Fold each of these.
Amino acid sequence: MKSLTNLDVFPIPVQRFLMDDTYDGGQMTDISATRLIDSPRISRLRSEYSHEVVEDAKRRIAAALGTAFHNLMEEYSPDEWVVEERFYATVNEKIISGQVDALAPVEPKEAKKIFGKDVENPVVIQDWKVITGFKAKMGMEDYEKQGNIYAYLVRKNGYTPVSFVIWALIKDWKEADATRDPNYPQLPIMKYEYKLWEEEKIENYIKERVDLHFSDAMPECSEDEMWVSKVKWEAKKKGHTRPTKLFDEERDAFSWIADQDHRATKGTTHEDWEITQRPSSRRRCEGNWCNVADFCDQYKKWKEQNDS
């Protein structure tokens, strides 16, 4: 378990919970599904500097809420569900595993309608998450790969996945926002369903990820893995401290002012505004959300280039 700092700001029961790290990646596992999807560089640095990695305890509170939601769902799941079971498969001579929150059985007749034939042990793969309303509104597509790895694993263990479903608890859900905005989650617990890939497609993806994680070279993190934000242009009215609007291109900002369609631009000219570039950032690195930014030469080189 990584060392936690600032534990003493929380009540003793919370401290004890955060220190009780019971996560099990699976015995005799070379790599878990969640690690497989994530950056190989981060995974290796965490392993190499495991005794030096520290994390602020406040960043574990969200995980604690997730555990509480999992406990609720597990305790009240129907008896016929397969709950919190870890599945294994061998790919490129490496054992991968994934702990599936639940497999909900599907009636054989219903599965036959879907597949056009009888299938073995049809199930819906369920995953339980705790997320923000912003995350739900902006999209949940990034969970598709995780669900398809689980589908691959359960296929290799005698089940036929029908679909992958996420039940997401929106931890900051507001009824007023749901009433006002149809794109906002309409319930405090939302269902998101994903299409499953062809078995060949997901197997090829898993093989590629295994090769990356176990190659001799240290791969660099991709933009997605570093949570890179795109360069933006901000339009800020002179004398104001915060920008009114962000744009992908500088010309879009000038066009927005010229169009005079927004209440803030009415009666103004370009001279009343400051159009400045907001540089790209690497949020995961800069906030040390990976917990190994201090040991990463890729981040060090980028920081030196941007600080010069």
Amino acid sequence: DDLRMRLVYTVVEGRATHYNAALDVRDAGNGKSRLIWTIDLLPDELGPVIGGMMDHALPLMKKTLEAA
């Protein structure tokens, strides 16, 4: 959604029985933005695995977005 600066997606394959996610871009002031990444996931036991993937991905996303 370009107007709301929001991307929502679902993962339909893999070990998760439920995986919905959203990326929201918010104004952080001073010409900066804040990216909020929310994942709704089942089973709960996958949380640490997915959290580790997010921890790995965030610096890469930051680097890519700052270069744009």
Amino acid sequence: MVTASAAVPVTALAADPAPASFSHKDWALQCDNTRACSGVGYQAESGDSEPVSIRLTRSAGPGTPVQVHLQVYTEKASPAALQITAGKLKLSGLDGSSPQVPAAQGSAAQVPAAQVPRLLQELLRSEVATVTAGKDRWVLSLAGATAVLLKMDEVQGRLNTPGAIVRKGSQPESTVPPAVPAPVVKAVQPVPARKSDAALAAPLLAAVGRADLEGQCSGGPPQASDVKVHRLTERKLLLEVPCGMGAYNFSSLLFMANDRLPYQPRLLEDVDGEFDPATGEVRSAMKGRGIGDCWWMRMWRFDGNGFVLTGEQGDNMCRGFPGGAWQLPAYVTR
């Protein structure tokens, strides 16, 4: 993932389909490798509003629409409907039962497509927007919205076109770059495990070498009883070695090895997480802070030779939603 800030050249972001992220005040942007982007805003970190968020998503390419979702969190019963007021615009009766909500409590609603253009105008003109449900009220900060949405236009090559959100112009919409095709991953299903595989934990761990593990793992050296052995093919194994335990996160080292001498274990340097033998997927989930209000996840799949990154998503702006408000794609594949 490429992390962008105000100092990152705009031309590099617009020309390079690599994932890009950017944040300013109470808003953040995440664009994936196809140039699809998600802009999100939250309540002010220094305020007293309960968690509230708005997400603007847009695929790359000319003429693509902006989709808008709202989400609130409350320890009370989830509101059935939400209302948003921004500037002179008031949208009521927004269905709060959208399946966009990852948390156990809360509501999410989609803004009707016909109302999105007007809402965008008011968001750019105002300092805050309010979301209400009955007597409950949430205050959405709009500090940083203009900078983040301008960056979205830049990444997607929309500046000075009629479809730009912030900096509109007369440049033809046809000049907007098309979406970048998502890479295709040819995943291979691992073969079933053998009863004898578990007995290979000790010799495989010995083949890795204590010195290599001590140089990369925190704490004491792992024991064979802590190691998991997974079969990938008729002759290849995956060795999962627990490597470190932080306050909230766990890490492991993964090695591919032969199932007989010479074992020749090879460290998978850019792959970390837990392996699911049923799917052949390695999944890594890192918690942003202890209360678990933002997560970052990466996924890899076995392709017959090694492990290929298949997905990356998360939200680095921790603002109080249990489990995180949104999972914003940073890398996608087919």
Amino acid sequence: MATLEELTVEATTEIENAKPLYKQVNNERMEFSEADYDQAITDLANSKYDEQENGYKRARQEAYPSIPDQLDMLYWDKVNDTTTWKDAIAEVKSDNPKPE
């Protein structure tokens, strides 16, 4: 996993390669100031770091079956002595592993 400093270097390269960048101020198109470029680098690095550290959580949340569906799976697993719920959850976790 990359450190925030490494991701900042990566973000700096991406922003430098994207120059010139512009913003709209009072209906006027203006190129970014140095402070704007610095902020864009900081924001991009932080975004990359957040995705690296927490992206798997968001991916799991989207992939898990709904709570009613999970409860239904648990009920039918108990009735039929099956492992549908456990298998579904294990698949989500293996498809979206926690970074180490």
